[in-house]
Amino acid sequence: MTQATDRELIPEPQNPLGLDGIEFIEFATSRPQALGGVLETFGFRPIARHRSREVELYRQGTMNVIVNAQAADVPRTVVPTERPVISAFALRVRDAQAAYRRALELGAWEIPVRALAMEINIPAIHGVGESLIYFVDRYDEFSIYDVDFRPIPTVYPHPPAIAGMHFFGIVQYVGPDRTADWTAFYSQLMGFTPLPNQVRFGIMPSGLLLESPCRKFFLQLIEPEEAARFAQAEEHLQRIGLGAPDVPAAVAELEKRGVEFLATERVHSSERGALTKPLPGGMMFELVKSQPRSAGAP
Amino acid sequence: MIFHDFGMTTASLAGSLETKLAAVRGAGFSQVMIAAADVVAHPGGTAAGVRAVRASGLEVTGLEALRDFEGLDGQLHAYKVDVAKAMLEICADLGGRLLLVEASTSKHASADAAVIARDLGKLALLAVPLDIRIAFKGQPWSRTARDFRQAADHVLRVNLPNLGVAVDAFDVLASGVPLDDVDILDPDQTFLVQISDYMWQQIRSAEEQRATATHFRVFPGEGAHSEALSQFIARLDTIGYVGNYSFDVYNDDFLQMPPETVAMRARRAAVWLAETVLRRALPVPNIERLRAASRA
Q1: Is the overall model pTM greater than 0.95, yes or no?
Q2: Nearest by Cα to B191 from B284, B99, B120, B122
Q3: Are A188 and B161 within 8 A, CB to CB?
Q4: Intervals of chain A under pLDDT 70
Q5: Which end is more exposed in chain B, N or C (fewer Cβ atoms within 10 Å of the end residue's Cβ)?
């Protein structure tokens, strides 16, 4: 490299954290078995339990879902109640500590370290509402679950995904006129890019889509509709979007397992996507037509 | 009410927090700027201060003021980030959506625009999850931004949606910023306008300006610059400013007077500005929303 190129302005890398998809999504609830039942109808299997906390790991295919029944004792984090809420998501990154330090440097709120002895400390920052964003870098040779979790005996740890389902994204409800703020948050701290308004996935038309720099998943920011703009509403992670290469096939498979989908004039299953009826506890899942992106794909 | 986008600060009033809030409300205001010291110095503790504000029924214009934040390095920077986070949390607890940040006067502060942008950007991102906007205000004796023009330059450089400027009428009255320069303001990134007047015709030195700003301000309509102040407000209205006006009156005499009396003077100022300067004859509900919609 010549001196001249050394002096060139190096643009900010498009994927500053080396983001590589979602490692897990965490729900908090005081009724973990009820939620577990719902997850199982979607094809998730309980495969491991945390060694010291009331926390379980569910999995299908590439998707890990954590069910957490224990409060973190950290201000502005979820205290589990009967109604399950999405309390965190974990991002796979190149170097978790580096990602964490960079986020703090740029203006993220740190979560105090709370790992116990012999447990991996997963660095985390505050996200929307009471939710957390974790940074995980051990997902290749061995995983965070190998240390902190004890496998449930006799259960196969890698249950296949139903109809090729994979994490597509997370829907975040934001306050009126707050889309720009949150877009700045995710783009500055993590390198997300807003998609043009005409790019649409699934059947739910509203909101702004932010694409992860690894192009493996999306965050969708949705503001309240006109009539609800002046009502008080907490910002939160509202639902998970599950990608499926063939949505009608996935819908059929899930219906066989007892999942019901909305079939109103405005919202109904199609090639593009589907939305479940509210599940026990008020949760919803959305299906979106999508091919899984393999690891390392651009 | 024709002046519901006007408010005053608890810093103008004597007495306990509850007394101040009651005086503001009693004078007919629907919003109040909260001086952080009034909350944290509450005899019952910060939580009791927060409860008092919430119980007052007044909308919180914002929390003031984070000072000497930007331009520091190392330990000093880390310390100020902690201060900022504490203020952001108090602001959120109060139900406030704006933190006023006064440009640094610290001798340790760098005047390097890149460093200032880095710090203001960090502050704005810290404020995002709490739904708080950062209003950056220049001060004539600051090392980083002397008036709203310089503050706006820094804000523009950072370019984050929840970072904007606070404009102090004092800039135009005492520092001699030309009225035409109001036109450089982006109304969408102007988050707060603070207004006050003072008695002197002329300010002779920087020291006198600072002393005047911090001890001898009076309410609009009571001072020597009513005409200039009127033009300033009218100009802000012309460029499409639809945010709040807060009386930013620091006056030692007012702290020796009953808060009810001072709050009534503020009300008189609000009525004068609304009726005479902004020519609002009729009370129109939701006027900002209507005006924002008509601009869009």
Answers
A1: no
A2: B99
A3: no
A4: 1-13, 114-119, 141, 227, 229, 294-298
A5: C
